[in-house]
Amino acid sequence: MSISQNYPLTSPSLSLDFANTKALDPRITFSRPTSAVYYDGQTVTKAEENLLTYSEDVSQAVWTTNVSSKGLVAGTNPLGVSQNISRVTASGAGRGIQQARANTGTFALSVWLRSVSGSGNASILLTGITDSGYFAITSDWVRYTLTGTGTLNDVRFLAELSGDVFEFWGAQLEQRDTVTAYTPTTTQPITNYIPTLLTAPANEARFDHNPVTGESLGLLVEEQRTNLVLRSEEFDNVAWTKSNATVTADTIVAPDGTLTGDLLSVVSSGRSYILSLANTASNTVLSGSIFVKAGNQNNVCLTTSIGNVGVRQWFNLATATSGSAISLGGVKNSSEITSIGNDWYRISLSITASAGTAQYLILDVVTGDNVLSGNSGDNVYIWGAQLEAGSFPTSYIPTVASQVTRSADSATMSGSNFSSWYSPAGGTMVIDTEKQPSNSYYVMMSNSSPQSAFITQRLNIDLTIISANLNVINVYQALADTPRLQWAISFSPTTIRESANGSSIVSGSGAITTTFDRLSFGGFAWEVNGVGGGQAYGATRISRFAYYPVRLSDTNLQALTS
User: Fold this and answer.
1) How far is 32 from 320, CA to CA, in rounded Å?
2) Residues 71/58, Cβ–Cβ less than 8 Å
3) pLDDT digits (tens, 9 = 90+) for 5-63
4) Residue 162, SS3?
5) What angle is formed at CA 134 by the lines to CA 132 and CA 137, rounded to 5 degrees?
6) Is 465 exposed, middle or buried (0-12, 13-18, 19+ CB in 10 A)?
7) Are 247 and 236 in contact (CB under 8 A)?
8) Percent helix, strand, coil in the chain (nearest 5)?
9) Which residues make up the CATH 2.60.120.200 domain(s) of the chain?
10) Which of 276, 278, 192, 262 is nearest to 228 (CA)?
């Protein structure tokens, strides 16, 4: 038998390919009263840039002089690291070094300078664009900046008088109007780009993508969540407690494309962290997350806790791996480190603990796995912190002075938009969706008045659960640990049969009401004989949904999900 013979001859009466069309069928009613974030798979923002080469090595030929001497001497850079330092000795007034970089636009030039001997004055020039920046330099390293717009010929660093000696480090030229974090270069200039986290307006569906590969993941539907953290992007604010740590605000381009990424640095060797405390209603499950990028340190430890009960989780940003986890009396539900491009990662930790009104998110800069201390000067970049009451993290919700709630996504078909393709005699649902690490509802067929019967697909740890009518017929399917799930479910008034990811058929039987009148993705509520029965919510990216108006064979079910 050929592979094609395993597939149904009947065409689906409804086929929704969210991943490829990136659009809602006009029969779907969608709502989400608040804005929400997503990736569109194509929008990027310029991140780090340095158009100068050999940014720390004046001995290279690309750095030319006008009758001055230049070279390298042993020393300590502005970060406190021992290395060879670029030194320039002026042989006349206004003499120094320069590097040709012809271009037109807006430019930001920056460099660390210190005076060794002489007048202690120096000029920085964007030649052809602006008058020089004239600075009184001291024996301490200071980063000086100059901006301008026009046609650039070269950049220059000049001493004031003959015999002046100065040292420089970290020269950087960027084609923009603001200086950002320093990016070292050698033989080639550097321009990096970061996938941009976008914001969809209220009541606009999100068709999400993998930010690194650009793969279309389908319709993003999430339950309502609240970010309990205040000032989620302002770690220098007093809302964040710092212990043996300093925060330098707005030093690097953040995942949303704005210059709002902060630098978190260790003051002196020992434990060094930032902490957010949220006081809110009692919770027993909590998920903490934050965006992190390595500075000169690759290791961090994230703590999520309710009161003093929680879990610590270590992460390595160089290897993109989760390390040790230590319980502080709490139970770890899951942890994850997800690349979002340009060496940024979103790390998360979900826990279960005893109820309490104080929730904590703590990030430590550490020297390695299962170590809770850092060295003086160690640093990482941070942005977008979140604490949410739930057993898994959802998309980022920015906050300022108060907590912010993102409403649930709701996408439904009802009335004639539903009955035009549905068959109450029996049919088959096929769904391709992202697997969530915890309990999530993906799709539901139900009757709405009263909503006392339904068939739903839900992931609960490693189980799929299909319920029908008041009899609550559960069909459990063990699932492999895979990032995506494909289900095919056939049902009639007496039987439910299912295959997931090409697995063997599992089934259930009983009196099953199939007089449904709506299809729902995301959040739904149901009633039992007109009385409120419960709410079912989740978070997932649905790639495809199809409905066949007949019960397909077991062979068909397995083939459609393989």
Assistant:
1) 33
2) yes
3) 677 778 999 999 999 999 999 999 999 999 999 999 999 999 999 999 999 999 999 99
4) coil
5) 140
6) middle
7) yes
8) 5, 55, 40
9) 3-34+410-561
10) 278
The backbone torsions φ and ψ at residue 554, rounded to the nearest 5 degrees and listed phi first, read -60, -40
| CA nearest neighbour of 250 among 259, 238, 237, 239 | 259
Q: How far is 437 from 349, CA to CA, in rounded Å?
A: 12
CA distance 154 to 198: 36
Could you tell me how many residues make up the chain? 562
In the block, residue with structure tokens 């006081």: 279
Place of tokens 């290395």: 83
Structure tokens belonging to residue 544: 């495809």
Q: Which amino acid is at 340?
A: I
- pLDDT digits 0-9 by tens, 288-345: 999 999 999 999 999 999 999 999 999 999 999 999 999 999 999 999 999 999 999 9
Using alpha carbons, list the distances in angstroms from residue 6 to 14, 431, 556, 562. Answer: 20, 18, 5, 11
**132-173 tens-digit pLDDT:** 789 999 999 999 999 999 999 999 999 999 999 999 999 999
Q: How far is CA 185 from CA 53, 54, 306, in A?
A: 5, 5, 45
Contact 455, 489 (CB under 8 A): yes
When pLDDT is cut at 50, 70 and 90, the band that residue 241 belongs to is: very high
114 contacts 167 by C-beta, under 8 angstroms: yes
CATH entry 2.60.120.260 includes domain 49-192: yes
Q: Which string of DSSP letters, residue by residue, matches 405-451?
A: EEPPPEEEEETHHHHTT--TT-EEEEEEEEPPSS-EEEEEEE--TT-
CATH hierarchy code of domain 3-34+410-561: 2.60.120.200
Question: Which residue intervals of the chain bear CATH 2.60.120.260?
Answer: 49-192, 225-406
- What is the CATH T-level fold of the domain 225-406, as seen in this structure? Jelly Rolls (2.60.120)
CA neighbor of 146 nearest in space, from 119, 174, 121: 174
Q: For residues 428 and 432, give the distance between their C-alpha atoms in angstroms, rounded to a whole number.
A: 14
Residues contacting 362, CB < 8 A, separation 6+ = 273, 274, 275, 276, 302, 303, 305
Measuring CA to CA, which residue among 458, 462, 467, 486 is closest to residue 561?
486
| Residue 159 in tokens | 């001493």
Phi then psi for 283, rounded to 5 degrees? -130, 155
**DSSP H/E element including 554:** helix 554-561
Q: Residue 512: what residue type?
A: I
